[in-house]
Specification:
Shape: globular
Number of domains: 2
Distance between the termini: 43 Å
Number of strands: 0
Number of helices: 20
CATH topology of the largest domain: Growth Hormone, Chain: A
Length: 454
Amino acid sequence: MDKTKLINNIGNYRWTICTLLFFGTTINYLDRQVLSLLHPILEEELKWTNTDYGLITAVFQLTYGLFTLFSGRLIDKIGTKKGYAIALIIWSIGAILHAFAIPIGKGTSDLLGILGITGISVSVAGFIIARAILAIGESANFPAAIKATAEYFPKKERSLATGIFNSGSNIGAILAPLTVPWIAYHLGWESSFIIIGSLGFVWLVFWWIYYDDPSKQKRLTAEEYEYITEGNEVNDIAPEEIKETKTSWFKLLAFKETWAFTLGKFFTDGVWWFLLFWLPSYLTSQFGLKNTDITLPLAVLYSMTMVGSICGGWFPLYFIKRGYDTAPARRKAMFFIALIPLVVLLVQPLGEITFWIPVLLIGTCASAHQAWSANLYSTVSDMFPKYAIASVIGIGTMAGSIGGALTSFLVGRLFDVYKATGDLTSGYTIVFGFCAVAYLFAWFIMKLLVPKLK
C-alpha cells in the first residue's frame, strides 16, 4: 500500500489537538493586546501619564518572564490537560479584572499607603494587579502547547504543528485591532476586557472535552496512536523532566553560549514589546487616528509579521543549499535579518507624507523581529544538548522580559519628558533609532561571545 495513503488512513485526530492549541494561542494574544489598543482612551479618561502606562506594561513583562521560568516544570508535574486549563482560567480572570481595575485599585492603593508607597494612582494600581494576574496565566501558554505537541505528534511533524499553533499569536494580534476598538466605541472600554476575556472560558469547554493524554484518548485510533509514538522514547514524549531537573541554571550561566542567547533576547525583545504595546498610541499622537481609525493600519501591520515568521524559518535553508553547515547558515541569515530594521530610521522623515508609510516600515521591522526570533531560538538547539534546551530558553526568556520591561518603563518616561516640551515626535525618533540598531548590536555581541556556533 502507498505510504501516503496509509498515513491518511490512520486518522487525523492529532490535528484536532493542533487546532485547539492554535485557538488557545490566538486568545492568549487577544487578551494581551486589549490594553494597548485602549491606551489612548484610558490615557484621556483616567489621566494617565506615559510613565504610568510604561509602569503597567513593565509589570506585565517582568511577571511574565519570572513565571515562564517555572510554568513549564509545573505543567510537567500536574499534566498538560490540567496545567493548560488552570493557566487559561487564571489569565482569563486577569483579563476580565481589567474592567474592574478602579475598585481593585482602591484597596491596593490603601494597602500601598499603609506600606509607605505613594505616588501610584488608584487606576494604575488596579491595572497593575490585573496585568500581573494575566501575565501569570499567560506565561504557561507556550510551555503547555509545546508539550501537547510533543505528546500528540511524531518527531517529523512537530515543527509543522508548532508553526501552525504558533501562528495563532499573529492571528490574535491581527484580530485585536479588528474587534477591540469597535467594542469599546459601542459598548465602552470595560466591555472590551470582559467580552474578549470571556472567550477563554468558551475555549476551555472544548479543551476539556477533546484533550486527554494520548494513552487515554478514546478518539485516537490504535493506528494513529502507534504512528504518534513510533520511535519516540518516553522522555521525548514528556519533555525531559528527570534530566532537566539535574541541569542547574547556575551551571548553564557559566557558558558563554548561554549568555549569547540571553543577551540576544535582552537587547531585542524590548523592540517587540514596544511594537505590541505602544503602536496604537503612536498612531493616535502622531496622526490623530482614534478608536476604529486604527483598525485597518494595525491589522495590515501585524499581518506582515506572518511573512517574517515563515520567511525567517526558511532563510537559513537558502545558505544551507549553498554548502553552509546549519549553524553558520543560521548566523549568516541572522546578520541579514538584523539589517532589515534599519528601515525604521525613515519612519519620522517620511511620516509627513502619509501615515501608511510608517505603518509599512514599522510592519517591516516587526516582520524582521519574528524572523530574528525564530532563528534566535534555534541557536539554542545548535549549541546545547537536548536536555538543557528548555532551561536555557527559560533563562533567555526571562532576560527578554527584563529587557522589555526596561524598554516600556524608559519609553514612558522619555515620552513624558518630550511631551512636556511639546515635541513628542523627537521622543519617537529616539525610540525608533533604538529599534533600528538593536538587532545589529545583539548580533555583534553574540558573535563576540561565541565566534563559532558549536
